[in-house]
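Work Package 3 (structural annotation) set out to generate three-dimensional models for the target panel prioritized at the project kickoff. During this period the team completed the workflow that converts sequence records into discrete structure tokens, so that structures can be stored uniformly alongside our sequence database. As a representative example, we reproduce one entry of 247 residues exactly as it appears in the project archive.
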Amino acid sequence: MKTVLITGCTSGYGQETARYFLDQGWNVIATMRAPRSEVLPRCERLRVLALDVTDPKSIAAAVDAAGPVDVLVNNAGIGALGAFEATPMQTVRELFETNTFGLMAVTQELLPHFRQRRSGVIVNVTSSSTMAPFPLVAAYTASKTAVEGFTASLGLELQQFDVRVKLVQPGYGPNTAFAANGHERMQGLITAPYAAYAQRVFAEFAGASITTKPSDVARVVWQAANDTSDRLCFPAGPDAVALAQGR
């Protein structure tokens, strides 16, 4: 029976991905900054561990406690929606610390185990904002685009050890906790010069007829984790698939 370690399982894509892998009969290690076992179904194949991807000690402790892992899903991430001009550099760095450097740190901690066993899969969850420009998410998109370059390069150097690396690119998911979790971080990021423009953008997003559900992402993460081809990118959700086809 295979084991998957998933970061960022408190809500949204991570939580749904944990449920999906459980339904497929896998052992699941669901990690969260503040563990809440009640957000996932009780199951003898489920373990919930504390993991803060911005804390090296937390990463090391979680990987040590996890034991052998077949698949790593780097899902943990934070967002910020607003005008870049009004975004403090501290917020930009916070985005990169979690979305980019945190993902790299967890990956680096697990790599020796995959390399020594000559097996393993790394699935990095990014965003469809890397496939086409979207307004008011410049810093967020930059943090995710960096992950895509990292992932493509890493995949080449790990081929010799039979370790596969994949990218899952979710579309726009209005029913996730993305906005709620970033509410405090996004305060003041829409200043007066950008207010009218932002209202038009928000109206367009609110009226979107094709969006991504957490179940779409979970299914595609599963597909990527089990894919044995050289395919790198897996768009998740009908809007993300449409973007990929239009590139």
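The helical segments are 12-23, 56-66, 89-117, 138-158, 178-181, 192-206, 214-226, 238-246.
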